[in-house]
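User: Sequence in, structure out. Go.
Assistant: Echoing your sequence, followed by the structure tokens.
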Amino acid sequence: MNHLLSGIEMKQIDEYTINVLGIPSLVLMERAALETTHIIRKNIRKSDDIIVVCGSGNNGGDGIAIARMLHLKGYHVEVFFAGDETKSSDETKKQLKIIRNLGLTEYNSYVDFNHAQVIVDAIFGIGLSKPVTGRYREIIEAVNESKATVYAVDIPSGINCNDGKVMGRAIKADYTITFGYNKIGLVLYPGAAYAGRISVVDIGFPKQALDHVKPKVAAIAASDLSELPKRYHYSNKGTYGKTLVIAGSENMSGACYFSAKAAYYTGTGLVKILTTHENRVILGSSLPEAILETYDAAAINLDSLKDTILWADVIVLGPGIGLSDAARTLVKVTLNTSKVPVIIDADALNILSEDMKPLRDRTCPVILTPHIKEMSRLISKETSYITENLIEVSQSLSVNEALICVLKDARTIITNAEGEICINTSGNNGMATGGSGDVLTGIIAGLIAGGLTPFKASALGVFIHGLSGDKACHVKGEYALVASDIINYIPMVTKFTESKEGCD
């Protein structure tokens, strides 16, 4: 996993590197400028007019150093120093002195951005904590109104590094070059929409500094696919676990199908579907690989239900079961009987939002997978509050109820009671389609059945789900993507990560 840092954590790393390990701030600034200049030069022409907009802090110092390096490489660069020089950091004052000695063009009161093909944003850094107002707001609006390609230094000015919120006004960058580690505010929306294409560059922060800070948040990475459950030549279907999908109701067979097939496509050895008898024919023909067991919603056999629950190594509970008395019985009995992880989704979440007692009296580990509206019902908070506090809301539910929460949004948050936090960055808006969530529950279940811990399976499952959607989107586009496409592209994500004992 890749670390995602808050502004406070990044400042702690910076201070530890400078004050404890002894690497001078100017050395880090020069490295930051060098790496940023290298990326900018890949995309610009010598004929481009470049304006570097700088503030008073060290972010401004980075920008001034960038201007100097571009100037020395023969580019036409102008510096707009928008800050108060009397309040500048020592490093920024030194950088200003250098460019003045070199004779770079410098503006202090006003500059016309319309003649620039490239603008470098170095106004604020990661420490911004109050709304942008006055002159700075006007400058940001002028940059956004220009037609120039915009490069943000470390983070687009006006974006809160801790949560991605816009602090009044923010630079809309085409590229963001961020230093050392990616930032939470560049991953969460709306900050992610303002960042453009993100490059994380190494400027020399030692590992000791990271170990000292111990960041709390991570993003799942492609390298984590190496942790998929291993496959062995000497094995059988029992080796890879048994998944029970308790889903569907009359006229709602699709939810069963999507969860069950996704579990199979993620490697589970056996899948049993427990659903209403009305779904027998259609599921028997559409997914013959699955074991099919049905019940009469008017008279559920509790002994048979408990036996079925105890058969499984992992259970999916809720997609399409409805809100009937039978559905409530399924939820209550499953949570009071199972000893294995239960992934709770959709209608089961809505049932629990009416009465949390079955969840609190459970005998099993639980993974909740709510979208924003379902979370709103669960915790009795407005959806706007949840979208503005995704990490805090998910973490609070995990801790208070001792469970894993997969809070689904454009950036899905995965948390557990032990304080682990993951943010998923895969996926696209074409996946906002019926059945997509059912596919996710099946993927997570398949990974647990194969032997992953519930938290690792949840985090990796969300990532695989998004990657599969990205590959489907690449072929079909965002408008035409449907849930079955996500399933069909799972093999494109997992086929290149097989163990040495896998397929030849």
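User: And one key feature?
Assistant: The mean pLDDT is 96.
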